[in-house]
Amino acid sequence: MNKVVLFALFALLFTLAPAFSEEAHKVKEVVVTATRTERSPEEIAENVTVITGQEIKNRSYRTVKEVLNEVPGLSITTYGNRGSLASPSLRGSTAGQVLVLIDGKRLNSPTSGYFDLNNLLVPLETIERIEVLRGASSALYGAEAMGGVINIITKIPDTPEATLSAYYGSHDTRNYTLSTTGRTGKLGFVLGATKEESNGFRENTDYDLWGVNGKLTYTFSNEATITLNADYGYRSAGVPGSATFPTPTSRQRDINSFLGATVNFKTFRFDLYRHYAELFSLSTRSTGTIETTVTGGALQHTLFIGNAHAVTSGVELIPEKAEGTQIGERERTRKGLFVQDEFAFLKNATLTAGVRYDDFDEGSRFTPRVSVLYRPFENTILRGAAGMGYRIPTFNDLYWPDTGFTAGNPSLKPEKSTEYELSVEQKILKGLTAKALVFHKEVEDLIQWAPDATGKWMPTNISEARIRGVEVNADLALGRVTLFASYYYQDPTDMVTGQKITFMPRHTVKGDIVYKTLGGFTASIEEQYVSYYMGYGSKPESWSYGVTNGKVSQKLKLFGGKVKSEIFLIGKNLFNKEYNLYSKGGIFYPMPPVEVFGGLSVHF
Question: Where is the TonB-dependent receptor plug domain (predicted)?
């Protein structure tokens, strides 16, 4: 079956679907990442994408990485299957310029600067929603939020439920997941565990991973709650190297543990957390271990002044430690103060303005941001924003040892950015919403590893970049069919050379169709096409790929309807395309061929 036939079948289902149905498309009710306060998506001036737990369930996603890969303006660089590195980019940013949070708490590493999404072993069944805030967000979140924020929000304990899920598929891949949630009086809990093994799709791409997660909440009153989180993840995987330079004996082991506590009392919120990560690598050339610990604490308060102002202010303290074979023992403490005012100056307009001051070992930084929302008509929302971002050098950038071939640079300055965006969101018909957005970003003092006059590779603040882009997307809910489509274009320019920045996405088209019946049958197709900027003098479209994924599932009732279950079939790279997400200087990392996974989930 080719693509034309496949999409023709879904077009037929789309045509035969009954009239508009509100049940097919749930409104995303709450967003917290944009303002650090709970707001309706239609009330905030920032552009945020929200993926709900139900949307995750309907599609072929197996990991958080796969969920995020469908977000407009967000791309994932990965080097193979789930055992490899997966790092996010927002609007042409580096992975270290994207802050990754779980329930509002930081996960980025102080050594690399980023968080490997394949190390997030939280079962998808325990995720309430994922919020993606695009654009410079350092005014609220400080360093690492230069390109944006990804916030994975886990479920709030409520209705008692347990789910046992298992699937088996290509490359002898086996996955087992258990999740349960419930409440006893004032005490609620969410527990999850996952285990996955695979032989891999090429030599030395096997992996073995498992994770356990827990969340407890205690409600003292309507205005006072305490939440405790505990997560642990383990991954052992082969490191196959590129197709050009394979490393068939290299191995890697990752351990991540996370402890967190959140206290909400009236208009106050207090967060305390500890994230420990250990990376052990073994290769024919060297063996190394790096351990990092990030301990964070944040206190914030929201003051309501009449009906017009909501002033949120806070303080954040982030001690970071690292000990590694290469960099030795390093530590620093970052301190931040922020204030933000959400000002409803008209019945149909809101102005949000904020600023943050951060102090760190390498200096200090003020980062402001202002955004405005205006509704000229009932179904039209106009948004505009301007903000600044920054990223401090990592421990690797500063303290990598002088080997004669490489060396760190303790004199590095923070990277800086200024970003502007405008957007219009329009409800065209009942069930149909479209949005168009343009942005302009200028980045200074980019840290780039390059050879010096002696040939030694060192990081320096030598790069300046300008990235402009356009994003258009639409959601449609029509009867039992929902459809999403987006187009993203970006123009990245190196302001030092005047050339395009190569190996960055140029055109990105993403879309999916989900069809659901009253009998419990669900089918989805997800499509993605990406073309990249290539080397100077070559066609920008000379490196591109298109991938199609899909899922079908059927709900069942067992034991007279007392036990609900679901059987499902997931297909990845359905048309068996040969492609890769990293290709530079003749070095590339193949992505998996067509993969099929079949499974069963049981709900108690």
Answer: 42-149
